[in-house]
Amino acid sequence: MAVSLLQRILQESEGMGSAELRVARFVSANPSDVIHMSMARLSQECAVSDPTIMRFCRRFDFQGYQDFKLHLAQSLVPSAPFAYEQIVPDDSIQNVVRKTARNSLNAIQRLLEDLEPQQVDEGARLLNAASWVGIYASGISEITALDAEHKFQRLGMRCAALIGRKKQWLHAETSRPSEVVLIFSQSGHTKQMVDIATAARAKGARVLSITAAQSPLAQVSDVLISVLPYDRTELMTPLASRLNHHLVVNMLVTAIAMTSGSEFPDQLPALDFWQTEKI
């Protein structure tokens, strides 16, 4: 995996002197501003000399400040393969904000690069033909399940988000051939979700999973929408790859409306009373 310039700056900052370290910290916290700054302005902001800025640039094998700024600007553009900037305990709040936003943008960019539109189309057609859709998830993916329930019901679909092991097993074991089981799982390795998919298929229901390709859950699903998970996570930030599951839900909602030939039927007033009761 390619290491971005900002990641290199973070990795090498421990070996810098105090003057270069001020430059590293300022660049890391304000990369979008730095690409528009002159060397004199950056020197002033960091309270260092112009030669210090030049030494800093050459540390990363750039011929000069302009070359450094060009590569810095390129590092701010989302690209595949996915680049993840880990948040560390001594990060400033500026870095927390920047890294969280950048990681989210990179996750969305990677989804655009990797998602197979045909899988979304196949999933939408399967859901549209179902007499009822059971939406399954565990852990933080339950939020996505509830979001899907809300949006599918706005289309007039018969569906329910099933939260909790007992409720999930009750419905999975009484599934019917005309029904679809929709499962959200980031890793595809959660045993509970794999067992539910197996049980529902045994009763004749079809399983649509939004999960990682080649995972145990993917292997027991009838239809797969493959979404790559993060390679690593951390405790201090929300998992940005969850955004991609929410985006897939939005894609399915639009595709279902188009597949059914409707004018985007919407039961919003019935579900969102606040739309009509605002003060």
TrEMBL record:
Domain of life from the UniProt record: Bacteria
Database matches in SUPFAM superfamilies: Homeodomain-like, SIS domain
Sorted UniProt keywords: DNA-binding, Transcription, Transcription regulation
Domain SIS: 123-263
InterPro entries: Homeodomain-like_sf, HTH_RpiR, RpiR-like, RpiR-like_SIS, SIS_dom, SIS_dom_sf, WH-like_DNA-bd_sf
All residue ranges annotated as the HTH rpiR-type domain in the record: 3-79
Transmembrane recorded as keyword: no
Gene Ontology molecular function: any one: carbohydrate derivative binding
GO biological process, one term: carbohydrate derivative metabolic process
Record's protein name: Transcriptional regulator
Organism expressing this protein natively: Manganibacter manganicus
